[in-house]
Amino acid sequence: MKAVLIVFAATALVATSAPAQPAAPSAPGASRDCFRMSQLRGHKRVDAKTLNIEAGDGSIYRWEMSGSCLSGSSSSDPLVMSPSSGSDLICRPIDLDLKVKHGPILSPCIIKSFTKLTPAEVAALPPKHRP
Questions:
Q1: What value does the mean pLDDT of the chain take?
Q2: Residues 6+ apart with CB under 8 A from 118
Q3: Are 45 and 74 in contact (CB under 8 A)?
Q4: Residues 6 or more apart from 25 whose CB is under 8 A from it?
Q5: Domain spans of the chain?
Q6: Which single residue of 5, 102, 109, 118 could bond 69 by disulfide (Cβ 3.0 to 4.6 Å)?
Q7: What's the pTM?
Q8: Phi-psi group of 13: left, alpha or beta (phi > 0 → left; psi -120 to 50 → alpha; rest → beta)
Q9: Which long-range contacts (CB under 8 A, 24 or more apart) does 76-79 make?
Q10: Coil, strand or helix at 9
């Protein structure tokens, strides 16, 4: 019995003295850029699942939805947004509750991802997709 306790204690000591593993790197292409909801200036609907959004600093983000919540809407339809985290700092899709108002109907959208476009990607946007 003492031998089992000694082996267990030695194993526990080695496990607790091992250096901590570094945090796993974020997924390739994952954006860590944050923006303030209050600084969003405009949007353009690209298709039934995609919006291009302009932030106050001139950055453009592509928001991908998990469903076709933008069907039947246009770029002139207002977006109804509220922070889900209590702060208007948006760093992850879950930080924002988004609905699109077309006519009297509010369509909820689940944002799957958002990506800050590079200057080259912004330059390549067709005028009809620029916010």
A1: 79
A2: none
A3: yes
A4: none
A5: 32-129
A6: 109
A7: 0.71
A8: alpha
A9: 77/45, 77/101, 77/102, 79/43, 79/51
A10: helix
